[in-house]
Specification:
This protein is of the alpha+beta class. It contains 5 helices and 9 strands, in the order αααββββαβββαββ. The termini are far apart.
Length: 220
């Protein structure tokens, strides 16, 4: 085999080792999905601000313009539908996240009122409280079933709701009901920034099965 025939193989081998080296020093691959960690880092602005967007302040066109610039949002999936009282709801998908949508914005009179934002998959309730301080109160399902129980933490002055719901939620609700505190390692399933104006504020305890209690603290 002559030198000319082996040269392409040598070049492939060289580029392969360069690729492996780049992956090793960067800790990621070219196909790694972008993840929004703005809640944890407080960058480019701290919650309830999200990439310059805030409920009661941002206009609809500002929200759409911002979504189209974010690397973890698939802008082609933005869908808008009508809501009661002439409201509008926009949802979008984040690549690599297996849910109907990873974010949602609700508008009334073309002003942002509610903003459900993507959250890191490893975000825990303890991390959220470290970032925001203790919540004013929590809401949980009083008549929790075997398969369902959600726990929501509220910061009404900030207009922030953090929710946890997974396969172990029933155990956590039982612990809260027994005054044993909240599991600090429970994963956050939803981050919501909402309007603090009375007309649009997120209401807790709308169901007969919901219980609102002062912040019980974390389990020891």
């Amino acid at each position: 085999m002559d030198a000319e025939s082996t040269r392409p193989r040598c070049l492939v081998a060289v580029w392969f080792f360069i690729f492996v080296f780049v992956v090793m020093i960067t800790g990621c691959s070219p196909t790694e999905v972008e993840v929004d960690r703005s809640f944890v880092t407080g960058q480019p602005c701290a919650a309830p601000c999200w990439y310059g967007l805030e409920p009661d302040k941002s206009k609809m066109e500002d929200v759409y313009a911002t979504l189209k610039t974010l690397p973890f949002v698939d802008a082609s999936t933005i869908e808008t539908s009508l809501m009661p009282r002439d409201g509008l709801e926009s949802t979008y998908i984040c690549p690599g996240i297996d849910r109907p949508y990873c974010g949602r914005a609700i508008f009334y009179t073309s002003i942002l009122r509610d903003l459900q934002v993507p959250r890191p998959h490893d975000l825990t309730l303890n991390m959220a409280v470290d970032r925001l301080g203790p919540p004013d109160y929590i809401v949980y399902d009083k008549y929790f079933s075997v398969n369902s129980c959600s726990i929501e933490l509220y910061w009404p002055d900030k207009g922030i709701q953090v929710a946890s719901f997974d396969s172990d939620s029933i155990i956590r609700c039982q612990a809260v009901a027994a005054n044993q505190g909240l599991d600090p390692d429970a994963l956050v399933s939803s981050l919501l920034y909402y309007s603090t104006q009375d007309e649009f504020t997120v209401e807790c305890c709308g169901e007969m099965s919901d219980v609102r209690i002062p912040w019980p603290g974390f389990a020891k």
